[in-house]
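Thread: sanity check for a docking pose with S-adenosylmethionine

Original post by kr_44:
Hi all, I'm comparing my docking run against an independent structure prediction. Below are the sequence and the ligand SMILES. Could someone generate the full complex and paste the structure tokens? I mainly care about where the ligand ends up relative to the chain.
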Amino acid sequence: MPRTKSSKRWLKEHFSDQYVKQSQADGYRSRASYKLIEIDDKYRLLKPGYRMLDLGCAPGGWTQVAAERVGSNGFILASDILPMDALPEVTFIQGDFSADQVFDRLLHQIGEDGLDLVLSDMAPNLSGVKNIDQPRSMLLVELAFDIACRTLRPGGSFLTKVFHGEGFDQFVRDSRSAFGRITTVKPSASRSRSRETYLLGRDFLG
Ligand SMILES: C[S@@+](CC[C@H](N)C(=O)[O-])C[C@H]1O[C@@H](n2cnc3c(N)ncnc32)[C@H](O)[C@@H]1O
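Reply from moderator J.T.:
Ran it for you. Here is the predicted complex with S-adenosylmethionine included:
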């Protein structure tokens, strides 16, 4: 298949990217691991023994970091529309998170004990057309917020990728009514030209 200008640029950037090199050296499955490492080093979200959900987990870079920091006494449930190679101590459910059956399977797996932390790094396949991509990504963010509100224990935390654009400000306002503290974070491994940022809600009000 002929390579387009943008795919050539992506390949060039990818192979010269310090986080890609670092992830290969450290044995992480994706450069995204360093986003979570940076956020967690600052905000201490991952604690030994925690019960947590990792949405949009494939290929597993965040899940690897979570497993290292939560340890084997915790509970990690991970999910993606794509398959993911198994990781020890991680329960994986494959499916489209916007499908009711998948949402319900996750709720069932979490059970009555609830969670300390919900992570979502989900992002739809981008078409490049803003009016299509933004609503798709906001739907995933809002569904992640919904499962966080249904499963977090009071005091729990929620970290989600969210894209600047239509719906962003309203989402931040809605999050303020559910969490005691709301912060937006742009880790250094997040490419500066990307509209992605991360919203962190702490002290879930329950
Ligand atoms: C940026 S990647 C996640 C990278 C991952 N956090 C890591 O560290 O390796 C975004 C993920 O969101 C997933 N995704 C997109 N739409 C989804 C959906 N409807 N349901 C579940 N996962 C979805 C994609 O398949 C992709 O694996």
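Strands lie at 51-55, 75-80, 90-94, 115-120, 152-163, 179-185, 196-204. Hope that helps with the comparison, let us know if your pose agrees.
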